[in-house]
Amino acid sequence: MSDRPRLRAVVDDLPAYVPGASAPVGAAAFKLSSNENPYPPLPSVLAAIHDAAADVNRYPDMFATELTAAIADSLGVEAEQVVAGAGSVAVLAHILEIVAEPGTEVVFPWRSFEAYPIAVTLTGAEQVRVPVGEDGRLDLEAMAAAVTERTRAVLVCTPNNPTGPAVRQAELDTFLAAVPREVLVLVDEAYVEFVRDPEAVDGLATLRAHPNVVLLRTFSKAYGLAGLRLGYAVARPRIAEAIRKATTPFAVSHVAQLAGLASLRAKDELIARVDTIVAERAQMLHGLRAAGLPVLDSEANFVWLPLGEATSRFAADAAAAGVVVRPFAGDGVRISVGEPDATDSLLTFAKLWT
Asked: Which residue blocks in 236-266 are alpha helix, DSSP H?
């Protein structure tokens, strides 16, 4: 008999989530490894955070009532359709908890968001990974073909992290027509504010047309609240209520709730910042291509270089040059869009790298 506590067998095979590396202490380097917004919170958001901090001895509003109402109003949906959580990754886990279990399957693209395999594995469901195309786009036809009687959910990341392209409405419509309505389709739109492709998915219109669709969004990227952990799902009321039941009680802090409210009030200012990041993305794409590097089109706040076996070397050389990027060993490098000085440093390095 073992003298150690017994852990679930599934934990042994659980992949570890790897965060983007930080610059070494004392080093002058730009961190472009975590898809963070490079700009600090607006003064009005900082003021809300300061005010909220005075009440941290109290539990927050468990259902984030005022915040969910404000989100609903901004999206043109009912408040009962919105479920807030401690970052979109936590909401993702709760969504899978209400549909997946041992003996079932969850289909998702790969490579895609690193949290997908972890969240699926912890439900006891089987992972069904469908390769992403060489152009970084999701192969929705293959994903639809991978659905079986055991499938309980399909994850659609758009724009896809880490490759960058956004799913287009026509291909998602075709996909949804092929997927049984009892299968939940989770459309992960963490980077939706950065999308400029006119043919890209309209998540809210898709949600209205398909009762089995759930949208997943976050305040971490465009709104710059990554450190406060605030995300949400939008779904039909029955599904939203089920997600709410599975959500960790008091998961969204009072500070995060007030920061989210202040961010929604400052939406025009924040979207102007997003436009700046999108323009910087174009500069980065142009410069990397001019340097002769293979880089895919991106609709997110990052770009992807499919470097294969050269991935680790590129990341190490970039770090030595003062730019920290996110390598995915053997596949490629994801580079977040930062401030103009960061882009300049990256492109200076890229021109010399061989």
From this structure: 237-246, 254-265
